[in-house]
Amino acid sequence: MTQTQKILKKDANGEEDPEAEAANEIKTLMESEKERRLQELPKLRAADQIDISEKQLQLLKDIFDSIPRATGGKDAVNVLTFFLTIRKDPQIRAINSAIARDPEGCSRVQRETFQEVFDRMERELQQKQVDWSVIVEFFTKRGRPLSKDEI
């Protein structure tokens, strides 16, 4: 079982309710990302923690998923298309001035709003395609993807 707590409901006969058990298997996006990242990194440190809310993370994921995939067989989108979509989205514009990450001493990158994170992403992303895992790393307390040496 995942780190979510397993709460089993019992029916009238005292047996476990399979529907309740199935409902407990549904993970939040934040939990899924944490598990995926734990597979890539041997240990998540404080700097590796995602610093935005579940709702904000889901909004970014929904936007990412709405963009057609780039060619090449991997789950990546065109960087330019991603930023154009982000800039036009009214929900993103509504949170642009909200704090997206607060390093709390974990990074030299200062506290940033969503707008500042997107601006920094545009400056730092040199490739033509970007996958979801790279985008998520910009919203950690560290504020940037780990290099191969750091991993």
Description:
The protein is mainly alpha-helical. It has 2 domains: 1-40, no CATH class; 50-137, no CATH class. 43% of the residues lie in helices and 7% in strands. It is built from 7 helices and 4 strands; from the N terminus they run αααβααββαβα. A two-stranded antiparallel sheet has the order 1-4. A two-stranded antiparallel sheet has the order 2-3. It is globular, with a radius of gyration of 18 Å.
How do you describe this structure in short?
With 151 residues, the protein is mainly alpha-helical. The protein has helices spanning 18-24, 29-40, 54-66, 79-88, 90-95, 114-124, 132-137; strands at 76-78, 99-101, 112-113, 129-131. It contains seven helices and four strands; from the N terminus they run H-H-H-E-H-H-E-E-H-E-H.
